[in-house]
Design a protein that fits this description.
The complex is a heterodimer of chains A (348) and B (244). Helix content of chain A is 39%, strand content 28%. With 348 residues, chain A is an alpha/beta fold. In chain A, 43% of the residues are buried. The model of chain B has no long low-confidence stretch (mean pLDDT 91). The chains are: A alpha/beta (348), B mainly alpha (244).
Chain lengths: 348, 244
């Protein structure tokens, strides 16, 4: 058998008039931990629900471990562990009872269950709460229990729908640690809208927006997709070099805009001692030398010059920007565009 | 154990993990005791070794209190809380999920129904012996109650599958069962074809035979068909999530 574990071909799904998925294609191979990214409502959960046979696609097909989700739903479900959004569990059961129930429905024999339970308790850190009712657990623990039930039958494939949403930073880090640990010997498709998590846990990302795959590849490839680099330049606004007067902001801006290769120049807030700008440039060039020479020629005091590759965050926003425009109108989206490089800086 | 029975067992146990089972059982027995012994002079006034009164109160009690409460959360609550998605994405057939839930709820209703056997046993066998009871009609009446419960729980399950709100599920089930129980009586003053139809589908009319010791195939088929039809409809509703 080939090592393709999940294969989605032209998956489309419409709910009434709403097109939730439009011809989504992707593959996940054995051993990959893939981040499935997209804004809320982009179609992540819909895709996952199709893969777990909870709903059927309007058109297209999907195969999990070689089984068609439409023709062999039971075979598909036997081979996956699924954690839906917000880990819906029976609150009145204890953790042990719940895991026992999940394994009984999966028809594991009691011996296998005990062995697996040991492993799951260890991997998901559940030893302290095994006898407690799920309703009394914190959200972080519930997610872990959800992860535990997804792992109880040792499936080759795990599908996790926003496993880290609503968790506090400590719980998040903890859960990601478990996921990384599990990812060593499982194929995982993990949806999220938090990009740091993808950078931490996944080697590959698929970005969906408005029901379409807009990027698919390893993280470096995805980052390179937007093809942008941002330079941050700060010029002293109190004095110039060699006794020259300090330049005005508009002057600095106009010179920066004239640099060959500079695409967009934005003024950034700073303290009162410097004019701070970001300059967007192409991925393949380097404008730092140009900017330095410009500062020398104009007798500006260059306080800061930094080159940042685009973060996954800004790539994500660039690729999924249409969603915002639809929701809030064009003006707002354009403003957001201006702010974008700012947060690039922060995230670097 | 098959996945269906595992689900049924969980469902049945969940009633006892929450106050539902205890409240329903206690209140039902309290209500039944009051009605049977005190209402209109009750059993003592009648001065006969008969449990007709018991069977006059148990089925409407089931309809109006027990079945709506027991079935209201079956699917509705699972849909609201999202646990249905977790359950359905386990390797079980949709039909197993429905049947499992149905059997779990029916299990509780039948537990309650069969516990009313305490009345005939304690009054006419041991420790008291209040007279010679004719056990034939008792047996047929309990057989009828099982059939009736099977139909009523299936109706409750279907209603629960159609909504996400337990309150809506409760009131709709309550209303349907109330109407179905008493519509035979409405036939008496209505007359005509409509009256005939109402008499035909009325649960009370259907149960009368069983209470008198008369087991009629027509009545068995009637209740069994209602149960099967409602189960199929509920199953279809569950499946429809895939397409809409």
């Amino acid at each position: 058998m080939s090592d393709v574990m999940i294969q989605a071909s032209s998956l489309s799904k419409t709910f009434g008039n709403v097109q939730a998925l439009a011809k989504v294609d992707f593959e996940v191979r054995k051993g990959e931990v893939v981040g499935f990214l997209g804004p809320n409502g982009a179609g992540k959960s819909t895709t996952m629900r199709i893969l777990t046979c909870f709903i059927s696609p309007t058109s297209g097909s999907a195969k999990v471990h070689g089984f068609d989700v439409f023709d062999d739903p039971l075979e598909v479900r036997r081979r996956i562990g699924y954690l839906p959004q917000r880990a819906p569990l029976y609150q009145d059961m204890t953790v042990w009872e719940y895991l026992d129930f999940a394994s009984a429905v999966r028809q594991l024999d009691p011996g296998t269950f005990r062995t697996r339970l040991k492993k799951v308790v260890e991997v998901c850190g559940l030893a302290q709460v095994l006898g407690k009712p799920i309703g009394t657990l914190s959200h972080g623990y519930r997610q872990r229990v959800g992860l535990g039930q997804a792992l109880i039958h040792d499936p080759p494939i795990l599908i996790l729908d926003e496993p880290t949403s609503d968790l506090d930073p400590n719980e998040k880090a903890e859960l990601l640690k478990y996921i990384k640990e599990i990812g060593k010997d499982h194929t995982i498709l993990l949806s999220t809208h938090n990009l740091n998590e993808v950078e931490e846990a996944c080697a590959r990302a698929i970005i969906v927006s408005k029901g379409k795959v807009v990027a698919d590849g390893n993280l470096d490839e995805v980052r390179a997709r937007s093809g942008g680099v941002t330079y941050t330049v700060s010029i002293d606004e109190l004095s110039g070099e060699g006794g020259k007067a300090a330049p005005k902001a508009a002057e600095v801006r106009s010179f920066l805009e004239k640099i060959n290769g500079a695409k967009k120049v934005h003024e950034r807030p700073s303290d009162e001692k410097a004019h701070r700008f970001t300059v967007a440039g192409a991925n393949d060039g380097d404008l730092r030398a140009e900017i330095f020479r410009l500062a020398v020629a104009q007798h500006w005091t260059l306080l800061e010059l930094q080159r940042d590759a685009q973060s996954l965050d800004s790539v994500f926003r660039e690729l999924t920007r249409g969603d915002e425009k639809m929701d809030r109108g064009r003006d707002w989206a354009d403003e957001a565009d201006d702010d974008e490089s700012d947060s690039d800086k922060e995230s670097n | 154990m098959s996945p269906m029975l595992t689900i049924a067992k969980r469902e049945f146990r969940s009633y006892f993990d929450s106050p539902v089972a205890y409240v329903v059982i206690c209140l039902s027995f309290l209500g039944l005791g009051l009605m049977f012994f005190q209402f209109n002079g009750g059993f003592w006034e009648e001065d006969r070794a008969s449990l007709q009164n018991l069977f006059a109160y148990v089925p409407p009690g089931l309809s109006m209190l027990v079945v709506p409460v027991v079935t209201m959360g079956l699917i509705a609550e699972e849909k609201r809380s999202g646990t249905l998605e977790m359950l359905i994405t386990l390797p079980v057939k949709d039909s197993d999920v429905m049947l499992g839930k149905y059997l779990g709820a029916l299990g509780l209703v039948l537990t309650l129904t069969t516990s009313t056997l305490l009345y005939p046993i304690s009054m006419f066998k041991w420790p008291w012996s209040l007279g010679a009871l004719d056990w034939g009609p008792i047996q047929s009446a309990y057989f009828g109650l099982v059939l009736y419960s099977a139909a009523a729980v299936a109706i409750g399950l279907l209603v629960s599958a159609l909504t996400e709100s337990q309150a809506v599920s409760f009131f709709v089930t309550f209303f349907i069962l109330l109407v179905m129980w008493y519509c035979g009586r409405a036939a008496e003053w209505m007359g005509g074809t409509l009256g005939e139809v109402l008499r035909y589908v009325g649960f009370e009319t259907r149960m009368t035979g069983f209470m008198r010791g008369l087991v009629d195939t027509k009545d068995i088929v009637f209740f069994a068909s209602i149960a099967v039809l409602c189960l199929i409809a509920a199953f279809r509703k569950l499946e429809s999530r895939k397409w809409i």
